[in-house]
Specification:
- The structure holds two protein chains of two kinds.
- Chain A is an all-alpha fold.
- Chain A folds into two domains: 102 residues, Orthogonal Bundle (Helix Hairpins); 56 residues, no CATH class.
- In chain A, helix 1 crosses helix 4 and helix 6 packs across helix 9.
- Chain B contains twelve helices and 30 strands.
- In chain B, helix 3 packs across helix 4 and helix 8 runs parallel beside helix 9.
- Classes of the chains: A mainly alpha, B alpha+beta.
- The interface between A and B is medium-sized, with 29 and 37 residues.
Chain lengths: 177, 645
């Protein structure tokens, strides 16, 4: 059930691959849901995964292999909400080609690190309410956590970490109900 | 007609081969009608080799010449825990080879682990040929999902030594899922609980109509059915010590008897609530008295003895579910793989943990080889019937300053994948860098498995901030790792490529293949058949010259009949191997260098530059440029360039 792909198409994609961001590479919208991303990954794999290309001449197989690895990288970043967030931030920075890719191992950590320092808060009160919110989260009291974070935000209105956490908790509440 | 390609489940205890025929997957039985054969290799006095269940029976009389559980040792370093453990348990001699490799010494002759496994694979090849009626040269071979690069590479080498082109190294749980879901039009999330003889794997997959995507895989390569046997064996041995004050573990013959009794007791307890063990003679004491052992073991007792082992598997399951962002409630099915999952205590515990009855409609001993056969057929077929999207089981890391190992590709990342990291030198005007590649989950380098290391000096020297070395890590669809280093400034001018150690260098493999094909393996089939031997085995005479044409005699159930085509491995096989070499793009010997290069992307004939493949302990040539303050394993002469700075 492999999707037959023309050699010209393969070569063309290989040529422009470095100028595509992960969304473009997978052929999905930047707002795509994770289900859509997965579907696109499956479709691309049918064309480019090494198992789908055993009959191609060596050179083309190698080209397919390069594309396949890049597709996996794109999927690996976009399927993980933390990596995807880090990637979206980087991608928004400027139009430079260097922002089109991200290290998969670092993407995860970068985000966690940034989140950690942001989250702890810059003011004593901010930190205090954040700590309370954390305790609430541990005990599963999302509503309490949101309240405490909103208190923290009154002291640090610009703290993106707090904001993100509130958004995340609201999301959780929604899906939990 | 499509080419023939078989699927082989090369297990710690048993091996099974399957093949697609007329759209149906068939488990192939050996000459004795057995659908699995023991992964045991017995070396006869005359140098000939016997493989399978009859070889296993030899272990009692000739434990030192009978190699079992080779899979536990394949791709391991000599200093590893597993090798030490094996040395304590097995009667055959395990010796050290160069670069911390492992060899089995039988009658003063040394065999690498890939060679031992190749003998088992060769037996499977012959079984398949008997069924196919023609030479079989292509196979998909399965490995535990948690196998690291060294183990995968060594398994691939084993296939090659056996005369097989390995189309794909496939993860066992993935193969099982394929056998379970192939052509069923499913849309499910499943867990594959795979407890083999020596390893435990759990994989969580999403099965679509024709796509099998592994979401996460976790495992424990130190946990398997053998450990359950060992618990019973310890019970028996302790009993014996209590009764006679002699430790039977110190006597290899007594040891094997107890081990066999333990295994049989375990099997009996799969069916019965209790079993009676009676060994008339375990050993004789110094006075020449025969010492026996009798004991009843209940299932309850067995459950208690092994409870911690079962719990250990669920810890791993927790991890796999967490990694795939799922809970047991999200799973539509649980597939059991591996003989030990027949044990009622395991089935019950699995049902309890996953809150559903596991699927028992596929034979846990055969399902993996069936899946491998389905994939093999799909790979040589016209149409790609199903896509397998797998992941890498372990973090891939590079050694950096301070004895640490930095993750480059994290576990459960889909493959194939490639990541490039940029590094600089540790000091100004440094002449070369040592690149060390690890697999494992630990931040401390030495706690991980060293896959290989190489020195790279082909860069333009300069101030440390000016030197930029791109190190590219690739994991291919077989889960095999390849690492390349290149100078960013000069580009392709100096690229170094290594393939990490499989334990055998390319030259060694070629030599082994040559020797094998030249005579060893071939003759014995003939010799054995001629002797009308009961042995269902292949193989191997000493260094006798090639004599005659090995063939299956007419009384054998052979599609060739008498006097027709060779069944086996003689000159014909040499031709097959040559052909194999020609279309091999994955295994390339680089020019005059004797180093093995097992990458997917050679082709450019890049020069190999000052590469050494050493296992950890030798912190060798240290040009005074390196920070040597660390331990032997540290070797961090490069530094990660932080792009953000």
């Amino acid at each position: 059930m492999s999707t037959a792909i023309e050699p010209l198409e393969i070569e063309a994609l290989a040529r422009i691959m470095d100028e595509l961001d992960y969304y473009q590479l997978l052929g999905v919208d930047p707002q795509a849901t994770s289900a859509e991303i997965r579907k696109a990954y499956h479709a691309s794999s049918r064309s480019f995964h090494p198992d789908a290309n055993r009959t191609l001449p060596n050179e083309l197989r190698e080209t397919c292999g390069r594309i396949s690895k890049r597709i996996t990288e794109a999927y690996c970043v976009l399927r993980d909400s933390r990596r995807r967030k880090a990637y979206d931030t980087k991608r928004g920075e400027n139009d430079d080609v260097s922002t089109l890719r991200i290290q998969i191992a670092e993407a995860r950590n970068a985000h966690v690190e940034a989140r950690k320092s942001e989250c702890r808060g810059a003011t004593a009160q901010g930190r205090q309410f954040h700590a309370k919110a954390e305790a609430d989260m541990k005990s599963g009291n999302f509503a309490g956590a949101i309240q405490n974070l909103q208190m923290a935000l009154t002291f640090e209105p610009a703290n993106a970490g707090f904001k993100a956490l509130v958004a995340e908790l609201k999301e959780k509440q929604k899906s939990g109900n | 007609m499509a080419e023939i390609a078989v699927g082989i489940d090369l297990g710690t205890s048993n091996t099974c081969v399957s093949m697609m025929q007329d759209g149906q997957v068939k488990v192939l039985d050996n000459a004795y009608g057995e659908r699995t054969s023991a992964s045991v290799v017995h070396f006869h006095d005359d140098g000939s080799v016997e493989v399978g269940n009859s070889a296993k029976a030899k272990v009692i009389h000739a434990p030192a010449q009978t190699v079992s559980s080779a899979k536990r040792l394949i791709g391991r370093y000599f200093f590893s825990e597993e090798v030490k453990k094996a040395q304590a348990i097995y009667a055959y001699e395990i010796v050290e080879a160069p670069n911390h490799g492992v060899r089995i010494e039988i009658r003063e002759e040394e065999f690498s682990l890939p060679e031992i496994s190749a003998m088992v694979l060769r037996e499977m090849k012959q079984i398949a040929e008997r069924h196919a009626g023609e030479p079989v040269t292509k196979a998909v071979i399965t490995v535990p999902a948690y196998f690291n690069d060294n183990q995968r590479q060594a398994t691939k080498d084993a296939g090659r030594i056996a005369g097989l082109e390995v189309l794909r190294i496939l993860n066992e749980p993935t193969a099982a899922a394929l056998a379970y879901g192939f052509g069923m039009g499913l849309n499910q999330r499943v867990a594959v609980y795979d407890l083999g003889g020596g390893t435990f794997d759990i994989s969580v997959l999403e099965i679509g109509k024709d796509i099998f995507e592994v979401l996460a895989t976790c495992g424990d390569t130190f946990l398997g059915g053998d450990d359950f046997d060992d618990r019973i064996m310890d019970l028996l041995a302790d009993d014996f010590v209590g009764k006679y004050g002699i430790n039977p573990r110190n006597d290899p013959y007594a040891y094997e008897k107890l081990k066999l009794a333990a295994e049989n007791a375990k099997k009996a307890l799969s069916v019965d609530e209790e079993t009676h063990v009676a060994i008339e003679e375990v050993m004789t004491n110094e006075a020449g008295e025969v010492l026996g052992l009798e004991r009843t073991i209940t299932r309850e007792e067995f459950t208690q003895l092994t409870q911690d082992l079962v719990m250990r598997t669920f810890k791993v399951c927790d991890e796999a579910l967490q990694q795939s962002d799922l809970t047991v409630r999200d799973l539509d099915g649980v597939i059991l793989v591996g003989g030990p999952t027949r044990l009622p205590i395991i089935r019950e515990a699995v049902a309890h943990y996953f809150q559903q009855e596991p699927r028992v409609d596929v034979d846990p001993d055969e399902v993996v080889s069936m899946g491998a056969a389905i994939h093999a057929a799909s790979l040589v077929g016209e149409a790609q019937d199903s896509m397998l999207l797998d992941v890498t089981p372990l973090d891939l890391r590079i050694g950096v300053a301070g004895g640490l190992a930095e993750p480059v590709i994290e576990r459960n990342t889909p493959v194939p994948i490639e990541q490039t990291r940029t590094f600089t030198t540790f000091q100004d005007h440094q002449e070369s860098v040592q690149i060390r590649v690890y697999q494992g989950d630990h931040r401390q380098a030495e706690d991980n498995t060293l896959l290989g290391q190489f020195e790279f000096s082909g860069f333009e020297k300069g101030l440390r901030s000016d030197v930029k070395i791109d190190v590219t890590f690739e994991i291919d669809a077989d889960g095999i790792v390849n690492v390349t280093a290149a100078d960013q400034r000069t580009g392709e001018a100096a690229s170094t490529q290594i393939t990490l150690s499989s334990g055998l260098a390319e030259q060694e493999i070629e030599k082994i293949i040559e020797q094998d094909v030249a005579g060893r393996v071939a003759n014995v089939v003939a010799a054995e058949k001629a002797a009308g031997d009961q042995l269902q085995s292949i193989t191997v005479a000493g260094n006798e010259p090639e004599s005659g044409t090995p063939r299956v005699s007419a009384d054998e159930d052979s599609p060739f009949g008498d006097g027709s085509q060779d069944l086996s491995m003689g000159r014909d096989d040499a031709l097959d191997l040559d052909a194999l070499d020609v279309d091999e793009t994955e295994l390339d010997l680089v020019d005059d260098d004797d180093l093995l290069q097992l990458g997917m992307e050679n082709g450019d004939g890049a020069p190999m530059d000052g590469i050494t493949l050493d296992a950890p302990a030798d912190d060798d040539e240290d040009d005074g440029f390196f920070d040597t303050s660390g331990t032997d394993l540290a070797g961090p002469e490069i530094e990660l360039l932080d792009e953000e700075k």
